[in-house]
Each structure stands twice: as C-alpha cells, then as structure tokens.
C-alpha cells in the first residue's frame, strides 16, 4: 500500500467507513453511495477495490481491473475470494458486446453419482463439504487469464503484481475477518498437515497483519507461467500431493484439461430495461429473469416497497421459479437446458396463472412447470466500470466460508467444497434445504449447478446497472430486489443495496426475512394469508454500480459486510 492509500485507510478506519472519503493527495474516493466521473470498483474488501482502481489509473480497462481485483481478493478475502474455486465473469464492452466467461469448477474425472453415499445409499454427512472429496477442479485462474487475454490492455504481470505484493507485505484484517478466522481455527488445524497462514499463536484481532508467503509464491508462478503456473508444474504437483494425502480424486489430467468456457448471456426485457445475466450452469440468471417476468404485469410502484401486496406477489413468483430450478437446470454441456423456453414471457406468465392475490399457495401443490441446491452463503461479488464504459460483473466462490478449509500442500490457497452444489442424492435437500434432481447429479467432468447471478442492466441501449451478490440460493432474489428497488421504487443505488431483504425458494415452504426488514404488523398480515415467516441475519451482500443520467458512476457497497466502493 502506498503512503497515500495508507493515509486513506486510516481516515476510513477513523470515520467508520461511512460517507465519502476523499484522499486529498489523489483523486481516489471511497465510501458508501459515492459518485465519481470515471472508474468504480465495488468489492468485498477495500484492498481489492483500491487495487482495481489503481490498475485503471495506470491505463488498465475494466477487465484488467476486474482481474487485478479478483487475484487481490484471493489474498485479502480468503473467505470467498479465491484461486482454488470458480465463478462467472460477465463482461459488457463500452460498445455493448456481452460475453460470459464461465470458470465454474468441474467434477473430477474419477467422480461418480454415488460418491457421497454409503453402502445403504444414504448420504455420508460432511463428505461433500469438509473433505478433499468436496473439491471440484478449480477454474478461477484459467477464467481470469482467459478474460485478460481477450480483453485486457495492460500486461498480465502488471495486473497480478499488486496481489503478490499484498500477499508478501500483508494487510490489516478487519474485525469481521478476525472473527471468521477465529471461528474456523479448529477446522484449519484439524484439516491441514501444517498450519496455514490463517492460524497464529494467539487469536486474531482487528488490525492484525495477515502475511501469506506461500500464496505469494503461487501467484508468482502464475505471473511467470500463466495458466501453466497453476495447472501444471509445482502448483499442480502440490495439489495432487494434497489430494493423495487426503484421499481426494483431483488428478493431473483434471488439472491439465480444465478450460473455462465462453457463453452467451441470457437476456430479457423488463419494463423497457434490458437485463443481461448468466446462463447455466448457473440457475441464477434464469431465476432472475423468471422473477422479473412474473411480477412485471403488476403495479409494484403503486403497491409500494415492502407492502403486503408486493411481498406476497414476489414470494409467489419465487416459489414458482425455484420449483423450476429443481427440475430443469444443470450443466448445459451435459443436458439440454431449455433456457429459451424457461425465460419465454408466455411460459413465465403461465406459471402465475394459479397466483391468488389473497392467499399463499402451498409449495407442495406447486410443481415445476412444463416447458426446463443450496449453495453455501459464502461467495463474493464485485462490480467494475471503467472510464470508457466497459463493465464487468464477477461472482466467485469457494462455496463454504474458506471452502473446505484445506490449503493445497504449501501453496497457500484454499480448496473449494463446490461438489456440494451438486445434488449428491437426487431429491435429498442439500445443506440449504434446496432439492435437486438428476439434472444436477454428479458426473465426471460436469459443472455443478450454481446460483451465482452477476448481472448488467441497460437502459435505452446504454449501460445502467452492474450488480451481483453472494448468498447461495438467496443470490438471485437479492439481485432481483436491488433491480426492482431502483427501477420500480426509484431508490438510488446505495438505498437499493441497503433495503431490507426477504427470500422464498419453494422448499422449504417459508419466507425468510432479515431481522428488522419487515415490521411485526406486516409479518402478522402475511401470516394471515397463509405464509410461514422466519427472521434471520443478513441476506446477501450486493455490490453494485449505477450509471447516472449525467454519466457519473455511483457505487452501492453492501454494509452487511466490509464491502467497499472505490472510484475516481
Ligand atoms: N456455491 C455457490 C453457488 O455457486 O451458488
């Protein structure tokens, strides 16, 4: 961190990171709801956001910044930022060309449909989450390098270098991170041969410095050798030796053969706005489009934000969209996912033919329609816009917080536990209560169904909004609420991100809502309509950017975590 940024960080700490902070010695601005002229990065950690903006100021574009931020988050946000996991990057160039780079993990070639079942055919608890068998073949490094090769302006070594410096020199952990490290301490100790950097002699406290020498070495190999610095050579040998130690199944062939895939985004019109989002193997984009399509005919604006009618309508739409997810969505390289049919307006409106404005449906009476899991909460999203209007929305994950908590043999990076996103036994709910079917069963080389929903919205053909969220099954509904908060309820982007959230996912048949998001009278009225409601802690952590009518960029960073908007 240079002197200016150190000063900026101190100011941020002292001010509690609220409002706008301007560094007098540079034109970098950070805080909540900030507005800038040129570039903006909103991510889960201020180090990641600042690094993205610095790359832009060196001449990099939004993809350079997104890749720099992605590698930086692997260092400063090990809860979910990663090189041992996967994700989706949605890119919209200033000229309006859109592409999704799918770097979702894949099941290893030795994987099989019954690999998590015991002899009686029952699911062996923990196997798909806490062990070496939980890891899919990581995709992040290939995906970020592919994106950079196609769109980046700066040399790759320049883009990855700040992450290397951050790992070598260290950074001050936040209060939330110190609590996360301490809460996970026993897992780090139990599951690793030698102690990872996330464990120290005493417990962590806010402001302690986390230095990651092994991770820096791994990043240097990637800097010097590109994808081969990860998928072959020393790093690959260490991943394989880690697999051998823990009876995992990722092999040399899996690593050699892993390739990210370019996919065409799914798109839809919502009240004249163009929604651009990710296709399968994430179900998130289709769910988002179905939700918007199902509520579109109703006067949300007149009914009001968080009114009884609005919440009832949205919940009934969610119930129907998630029923479809359980049946028709999976890896399009392994099955025909009829995204066109599932997002067709006629089909979507037909799904609401049983909607009753006065009372709740029962999920057991709502089946998937006739046309086309839960995921852990710890994923992360970042949004990037540069001075030329190039935009990038990235959601990336290890699945669980810190993945399976296993560091691949002295590489410094955590392995994912993404295999749990498969339906490990069709019909059996996963850890978040989502059920899946054959379409998402484990098969060698297949990508597990995701909920990640990085999304871009256009208004009159121009870039308008970039958004996404972590939160497992709650990702699509969080993104949906932020979009409708802006379009239907006229909120600015920070208000839209701050707005209280609720969620329904067909099964279990209940509405979860953030404590204090809905008042007790409203909860009572919804219960009288037949809804079951449960309050819980934060839902999602949306990081979003809105382009204002004068072209300025406005950053909405979610206060539910240590998220940070940074721009210039
Ligand atoms: N593991 C979270 C997701 O892909 O939805």
Description:
The protein is an alpha+beta fold. It has a domain at 50-262 and 396-440. 35% of the residues lie in helices and 16% in strands. It contains 20 helices and 21 strands. The protein has a 9-stranded antiparallel sheet with strand order 1-2-21-4-12-13-5-6-9. Bound molecules: glycine. Glycine (GLY) binds next to strand 13.
Summarize this structure briefly:
With 568 residues, the chain is an alpha+beta fold. It is 35% helix and 16% strand. Helix 3 runs antiparallel to helix 5 and helix 6 runs antiparallel to helix 9.
Structural topology:
Elements: H1 3-14, E1 20-22, E2 29-31, E3 35-36, E4 40-43, H2 46-57, H3 62-76, E5 86-92, E6 98-102, H4 127-130, H5 140-151, H6 156-169, E7 171-172, H7 175-183, H8 185-191, E8 209-210, H9 213-225, H10 228-231, H11 233-245, H12 252-257, E9 261-263, E10 266-270, E11 273-277, H13 284-295, H14 300-303, H15 308-328, H16 339-342, H17 345-351, E12 378-385, E13 391-399, E14 455-459, E15 462-467, H18 475-487, H19 493-498, E16 502-503, E17 511-514, H20 520-528, E18 533-536, E19 544-547, E20 553-556, E21 564-567
Helix pairs in contact: 2-3, 3-5, 3-6, 6-9, 13-15, 13-17, 13-18
Glycine is lined by residues 375-376, 379, 397, 399, 418, 421, 450-452, 472.
């Amino acid at each position: 961190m240079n002197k200016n940024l150190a000063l900026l960080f101190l100011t941020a700490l002292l001010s509690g990171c609220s409002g706008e902070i301007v560094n007098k010695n540079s034109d970098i601005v950070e805080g909540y709801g900030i507005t800038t002229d040129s570039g903006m990065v909103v991510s889960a950690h201020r180090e990641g956001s600042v690094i993205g903006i610095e790359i832009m100021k060196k001449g990099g574009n939004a993809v350079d910044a997104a890749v720099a931020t992605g590698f930086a988050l692997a260092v400063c946000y090990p809860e979910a930022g990663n090189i041992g996991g996967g994700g989706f990057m949605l890119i919209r160039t200033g000229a309006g060309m859109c592409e999704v780079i799918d770097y979702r993990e894949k099941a290893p070639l030795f994987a099989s449909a019954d690999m998590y079942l015991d002899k009686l055919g029952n699911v062996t608890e923990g196997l798909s989450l806490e062990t070496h068998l939980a890891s899919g073949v990581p995709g992040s490094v290939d995906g970020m390098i592919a994106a950079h090769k196609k769109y980046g302006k700066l040399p790759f070594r320049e883009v990855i270098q700040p992450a290397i410096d951050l790992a070598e020199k260290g950074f001050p952990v936040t209060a939330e991170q110190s609590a996360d490290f301490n809460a996970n301490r026993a897992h780090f100790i139990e599951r690793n041969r030698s102690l990872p950097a996330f464990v120290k002699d005493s417990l962590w406290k806010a402001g302690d410095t986390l230095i990651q020498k092994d991770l820096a070495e791994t990043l240097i190999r990637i800097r010097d050798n590109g994808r081969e610095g990860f998928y072959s050579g020393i790093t690959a040998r260490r991943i394989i030796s880690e697999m051998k130690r823990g009876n995992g199944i990722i092999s040399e062939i899996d690593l050699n053969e892993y390739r990210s895939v370019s996919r065409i985004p799914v798109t839809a019109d919502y009240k004249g706005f163009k929604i651009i989002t990710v296709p399968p193997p994430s179900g998130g984009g289709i769910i988002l489009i179905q939700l918007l399509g199902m509520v579109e005919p109703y006067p949300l604006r007149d009914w009001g934000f968080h009114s009884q009618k609005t919440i009832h309508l949205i919940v009934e739409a969610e119930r129907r969209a998630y029923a479809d997810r359980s049946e028709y969505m999976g890896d399009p390289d392994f099955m025909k996912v009829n995204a066109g049919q599932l997002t067709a307006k006629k089909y979507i409106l037909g799904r609401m033919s049983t909607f009753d404005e006065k009372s709740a449906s029962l999920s057991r009476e709502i089946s998937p329609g006739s046309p086309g899991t839960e995921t852990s909460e710890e994923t992360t999203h970042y949004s990037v816009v540069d001075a030329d209007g190039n935009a990038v929305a990235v959601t990336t994950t290890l699945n669980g917080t810190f993945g399976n908590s296993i560091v691949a043999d002295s590489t410094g990076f955590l392995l994912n536990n993404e295999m749990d996103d498969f339906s490990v036994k069709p019909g059996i709910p996963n850890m978040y209560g989502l059920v899946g079917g054959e379409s998402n069963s484990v098969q060698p080389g297949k990508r597990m169904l995701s909920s990640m929903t990085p999304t871009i919205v256009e208004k009159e053909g121009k870039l308008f909004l970039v958004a996404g969220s972590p939160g497992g099954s709650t990702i699509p509904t969080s993104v949906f609420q932020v979009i409708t908060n802006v379009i239907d309820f006229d909120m600015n982007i920070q208000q839209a991100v701050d707005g209280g959230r609720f969620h329904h996912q067909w099964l279990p048949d209940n509405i979860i809502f953030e404590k204090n998001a809905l008042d007790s009278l409203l909860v009572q009225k919804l219960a009288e309509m037949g809804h079951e409601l449960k309050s819980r802690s934060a839902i999602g952590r949306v990081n979003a950017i809105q382009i204002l009518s004068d072209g300025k960029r406005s950053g909405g960073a979610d206060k539910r975590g240590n998220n940070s908007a940074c721009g210039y």
